[in-house]
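Spend some time on this chain, tokens included, and walk me through the fold:

. . .
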Amino acid sequence: MRKWLDRYYGVFRKIKLNYVLLNLLNYGKLKANRDKYRELGLNKPVWAPVSSLDFAGRPDDRPWLDQPDALEQLQKHSDFHTFDEKTRNELLQWPNRGYMVLESFFSEGDVDAINAEVDRLITQKEVDFNFTGRKIMFAFRHSDLLRDVAKDKRLHRLLSFVLGREVVPFQTINFLQGSEQRAHSDFIHMTTEPKGNLIAAWIALEDIHTENGPLIYYPGSHKLPYILNGTYNHGGNRWMIGDNAYGRYEEEVQRMIDQHGLKPQEFHAKKGDVLIWHGNLYHAGKPILREGATRKSMVVHFFGEGVFCYHELTQRPAFIETV
């Protein structure tokens, strides 16, 4: 059923009962959330819909680098000085920008191996594109090599430092072409309680330039209030996800961009560069200007270990499979 929902996009995707049935099919995995439900005071079955509205009134216990004194605390932290100078400089920009750039993080040989592995998975039909026609979801569940990329020790150490807790890779998305997706934050899809415990690493698998649909991002947008079901008119009710709920969400993001005068920056990456972004950083994919141009890339999303994870838009509780 999960594979069907990944590839299908229509009216049945809006019926919440479908997601409840999916939850029931995964009840054995969702049982692991019971202790977290008790801790958070969630008085509902682990298979029932859950959203940010269930956590109204809870303390806003965000990660340490989301706090007002983040820059001061960062420079005092003993582990800060164990990173190289370039990484330290990027870390110092994190509280205000919400992103870091790690140049030449993966070698050309590493990237070539990743691209060859993705090609193999597609050719052997071990993976497929989801309903967008652009995204290959969870390929790391089918490949030791991609799993090793998602569990890279250097990334793990840096991202765990940023969140102030160990990180766990939740999903990967592989692209052969640019997404051309409107501005959004990942938090609407991969939501956490406490807030802010989502972080992403985007890997350029080839040189990225103006013509092949580069990623764009909005520095500082991570500091804006989270857009969640209780903060915009998603059009849904107890039984249905709202008609064009995600389109309405994108409109709300654009309204926030216009209201705060945010300016986009393009990420013209070199092969092997990595962009780390905050779970609430607004980002998008620019149009592809040259027909047939590829923009090979891979993004890994990480949750902070021990937090409660769910999908705000469809109100599905998440489970993290060991990889």
Q: What stands out?
A: The longest strand covers residues 167-175. The radius of gyration is 19 Å. Residues 27 and 47 are 7 Å apart (CA to CA).
